[in-house]
């Protein structure tokens, strides 16, 4: 099993058993900050809902999951009336706030326990990203999507034997991972910080908001209507579901899709199973030719490290360095508005970046931002259908790996709607993530687990 995954699963299981007091940010009226990616939002917004209406399928959430579900459903069922209801602007949640890494299934595989099933999982996620690549190309929108692979960079020499064995097992199953020794890693990434790495040729990077724009264009071309600034305030279940939109209008829907990830508990669903965790990212000003040559990141392949609360790095086409991670925080009662200390987090990320690339000392971050991840207590994603009338579909709980999985899960939602089997469920039955206790125990447990992550990671700081 991937050692990083072992740590993540073991530590996230601790969420339900760590009951130590922890301090942290509180709810506030803080206006959410804007990500660098969001500068590429469309000039024209979609109009908000202005009347009661009836649809076949109402999709709640205008991020990757909602857009993917809408596109797959519309392509499979062109006669359906489908609408997306987005509380703010399309892509304003995690879809427009992530680190820009596109990952297959290799970073979460348990080869020892699941073997061939993990290979099927991997193949599905790889096929999904290639399908996404083709769809983006068909829209004519340049999303800066590059699928040249990604790297998991190893910090601890004691982990090397386990990573070597993991790569050998993956190769026997037909998964094309490569182990890099320290010299190769330094040559490829331009830093001597790591003792080795695992390279997966399937994976890559994307401009988060440009991808939103491409998916949005595909969705609208498929006949789906998008309503922005149209928050769903309540859901009344039944054979025909009734949505309260913006406390003004009623939407009747035969089926709905919950595509709200870390925000889902605010609708009354998945409380205790999917919870929001705040994480941060930053982007530098463009590197000069001298700086770019000095860091010697020859491969330009995105990577993340083997910490529990890992750092991830991407080098953009216009030579900006995007760094994220190293910090994760939970706000009491699934709080979404976080008045965090971005200056502190910014200094932490800058310290890590300059440790990796000393030649960048003195460079400035152009923007630092916070976003909400949809996390689960056992690292299990959630996709399926539920409700007495089996008309509530859901795709969420990506644990920070949602760019590619959300596109795949949209396909799964469409298959379930049509009553078709999907090969994903050959890998994993339709199950719900682990349940966590209510507040205040959830807050104490989650914060304590995150504190434990950070305590373990202190050994990697120089």
SSE order and pairing:
Layout: H1 3-13, E1 53-60, H2 64-76, E2 82-85, E3 101-102, H3 111-114, H4 116-139, E4 150-154, H5 160-172, E5 178-181, H6 182-189, E6 196-200, E7 204-205, H7 208-221, E8 225-227, E9 232-236, E10 241-245, E11 249-258, E12 274-284, H8 289-295, E13 303-305, E14 311-315, E15 321-325, H9 342-356, E16 365-376, E17 382-386, E18 392-396, H10 402-417, H11 424-427, H12 441-457
Helix pairs in contact: 2-7, 2-10, 4-7, 4-10
State the distance separating the first and last CA atoms. Answer: 28 Å
For the record, the CATH architecture stands as 3-Layer(bba) Sandwich
Number of distinct helices: 12
Q: What oligomeric state do these chains adopt?
A: single chain
Give the uncertain stretches in residue-range form.
Answer: 1-31
Relative strand content: 15-25%
Rounded Rg = 21 Å
Overview of the structural elements:
This protein is of the alpha/beta class. The protein has a single domain (3-460), classed as 3-Layer(bba) Sandwich (FAD/NAD(P)-binding domain). The protein has helices at residues 3-13, 64-76, 111-114, 116-139, 160-172, 182-189, 208-221, 289-295, 342-356, 402-417, 424-427, 441-457, and strands at 53-60, 82-85, 101-102, 150-154, 178-181, 196-200, 204-205, 225-227, 232-236, 241-245, 249-258, 274-284, 303-305, 311-315, 321-325, 365-376, 382-386, 392-396.
